[in-house]
């Protein structure tokens, strides 16, 4: 008997109905489970939906059997679950999976939740840094040479400089603008303004990156609730609709990466925009993964905000600040606000808050006509440009 496959079609609109952060920054007295629970409770309160309505859970990065341990800790018994783990892009990929499940009727309300005490654990000696994420499989050919994660990003940045003439000052300016966005965020770990000279004069971590071009280490968690349109109608906040999503995976070994100047966001972004039916020119605010300044620059190119090789010039002159032509990482990003590990879920929280007009004075994005932003993009990157997930979101 020949199986007949029917292509799935979305029959139900999907919205983000609740978002929240746990305590973030320096959190010495909580466990990762505490932060998961705190963020989940706050997101549910934000949505106005009952806990009993949650029938889907997505979680990664904690426990032996994620997300089952988190479900047990939260007192949930989901009928749909996802534990996809692809680094920093995990949450955009999970959100895409959840949106598809909700659209198909496999779930009604899905909770995405994350929590990490990476900073506190390192400070207390509960964890140590390692040279490699693994030394078996493809990585065995690179790990013995001390090929650290930051070294991989640094090599890619140097290649971009070689190919396109991108300058140290342009990378540094991205850090300066991100810090300027953090200035008005009371929850950001670092808010004091910095200059290009401050960035360039700092200690070199991996050439060409100085300290201020690298993400901070923090504690923190967050949660996002997605729901079908019938459930969104009962939510306490205006829905933020998922217009389109795209995912992509690339290499693990750097030797298998065809072009150091092209990230997998080039594919995830194209798919997301095509499925959303919008163009990059229509985006009002962008939340991009920024473990290092080069990630911001190359993601701007790969999402189509500028041509390949023009990211350095595009990002100059305050363009990425809240009042600039394309506000990027409006909470201060991983460079200044928080970075507890897999930061991708924080991008979704900030994008939703911007679209709902809930950012603090001084960092709320406005369109040229004074109205709130209508379309946002959140794009996460995992590993050393090994994976990408991009979501296009919009308010009514």
UniProtKB/TrEMBL annotation:
A Pfam family that the UniProt record links to this protein: Thiolase_C_1
TM annotation in the entry: none
SUPFAM superfamilies, alphabetized: Thiolase-like (SSF53901)
Domain of life: Bacteria
All copies of domain Thiolase C-terminal, residue ranges: 246-395
Stated name of the protein: Acetyl-CoA acetyltransferase
